[in-house]
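Table S2 (text version). Query chain:
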Amino acid sequence: MGENLGREPVTEAGKPLDGRVAIVTGGASGIGLATAKALAEAGATVAVLDRAPVAAGVLASLGAGAHFAVQADITDERQVDQAFADVMAREGRIDILVNCAGLAIRQPALEHTMADWDKVVAVNMTGTFLCARVAARHMIAAGIAGAIVNVASIMGFSGGGLYPNISYQTTKGAIVNMTRALAVEWAPHGIRVNGVAPTYVNTPFIAPLLAQPELVARIEAMTPLKRLAEPEDVAAAIVFLAGPGAAMITGHTLPVDGGFLAQ
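Corresponding structure-token output:
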């Protein structure tokens, strides 16, 4: 293993993630963008990875720093490998990966087509694996004790919910156990792998639900803290798991759910 294993980059500015390079998939909006901003605020240089070109305003919103965009479809192995190679060529290191890109096609199981099933599996499960694998390969080659945070969902722990969502629930459950398995496999290299399981979050991802006041009221009634989460709530948990304060935490998926799963 490399000589940097387990060591933090030498910095002077005092922010917890100074000197780190972070990649955030799905980082152009929603939880991904909030996470990119939080990582930048904590001192990291952030690469926003998205399937579509990232608007200049997104990068500007991250504040000062050499933040940049990388374009790739995370379901395409070659595009993923190239995107991470580009980050390495530019920055010389990858310390943090946040797998935030996700897809939901909300349909009853009896009506769910194989084409739609395959789309959700490709993004949520295969895409998460491809990005985690290539990030770990670069971390191990460089001797970097990195951190990977996967975005699962409360639906990865629950078969219930307010509507049928079989492929989303299945893939998010897979992410929970993928997180455990990778944490165990990569622990000898000092790489920590954790996850977060958000509740319903006030983002464009659930815009059709937010347009139904009665449904929002039901979600709030089912949540002990009586509100939906904001993207910043989830981002704060991700930054904690990616940072030095979580140095002894790996293989854990942290619900960010206002107590939803505690009932």
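Notes on Table S2: The domain at 21-253 is CATH 3.40.50.720 (Rossmann fold). The chain is about 40% helix and 15% strand.
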